[in-house]
Amino acid sequence: MKRSIPELQHSAQPLVMVTAYDYPGGKHAQAAGVDLILVGDSLGNVVLGYDSTAPVTLGDMIHHARAVRRGAPDTFMVVDLPFGTYHTGVQDAMRNAVRVIQETGADAIKMEGATPEILQVVQTLTRNGIPVMGHVGLMPQTATAQGGLRVQGKDDAGARATLDGALALEDAGAFSVVLEAIPARLAKLISERLTVPTIGIGAGVNCDGQVLVTHDLLGIYEGEEKKIARRYAELGRAAREAIAAYAADVRAREFPTRDNAFVMKDDVLDKLY
Ligand code: KIV
Ligand code: NA
């Protein structure tokens, strides 16, 4: 059963969110019983092979989110608005968010940042009935401008800005806020100050929920080991081994066998000769 926003906001247990990018990903996440699925623009890195999330388009997000939805019809689904699709004015942001909701069946959208411009977008969308998840701390879409993919909120100004941003997102109507790559104690403080749930990644255990990129936790995406993730499986290795075993069987004519083949009557065959 899909959980409602009030149910998510009053969960006794930490909220569990994972990313998904396609039909099997959605299916597995739903069967595993997660609270929320995020169709993240981490799609760019872990599925499309870009070295950042910046090249991901609205069309990419919609294409993948539709597949996720087919696999997970009964799970709360959040879809990232990608870079550039909510930065050119409130009207454009509204139009793009409506497309995501209508074309994918998303329950909510997520966007990065808490600048005055973004806050205005959050306010407009939420007032018009589109639930918004906020995202502060490390924001991959604009990481270059943030000085690279690095921990945020460590110094006075950074900690203050991160706290103020999260509070302002709640005020603007966000139903939940992702905290990415900030010190655990800052995340704890923000989680205490906010009424709406925080969902952390690289933000310590005291957030109201946690999110991981599924391709990290499954070992499908095997970049450098990430401090913030934990690998629960080695599906990348399993995939290589399986494909190599298939290749060896083909070369040795051990696949297919009679069991994999179709039969026909001898007299039909005889007429062909
Ligand atoms: O794109 C993504 O996967 C995300 C999560 C890491 C929060 O934004
Ligand atoms: Na994202």
- In CATH, the homologous superfamily of the largest domain goes by the name Phosphoenolpyruvate-binding domains
Amount of helix: 40-55%
Bound ions, cofactors and other small molecules, one mention each: 3-methyl-2-oxobutanoic acid, sodium ion
Query: What is the second-level CATH architecture of the largest domain?
Result: Alpha-Beta Barrel
**CATH fold-level topology of the largest domain:** TIM Barrel
The value of Rg in angstroms is 22 Å
- Low-pLDDT windows of residues: none
Q: Which structural class matches the secondary elements?
A: alpha/beta
Number of DSSP E strands? 8
Number of domains: 2
Subunit structure: Homodecamer; pentamer of dimers.
Keywords: Cytoplasm, Magnesium, Metal-binding, Pantothenate biosynthesis, Transferase
Active site: 180 (proton acceptor)
Enzyme class: transferase
What order do the helices and strands come in, and which of them pair?
Blueprint: H1 5-9, E1 15-19, H2 23-32, E2 36-39, H3 43-46, H4 58-71, E3 76-80, H5 90-104, E4 108-110, H6 116-127, E5 132-137, H7 156-172, E6 176-180, H8 184-193, E7 198-201, E8 209-212, H9 214-217, H10 235-251, H11 266-272
Parallel strand pairs: 1-2, 1-8, 2-3, 3-4, 4-5, 5-6, 6-7, 7-8
Helix pairs in contact: 2-4, 4-5, 5-6, 6-7, 7-8
Residues 40-42, 80 line the site of sodium ion.
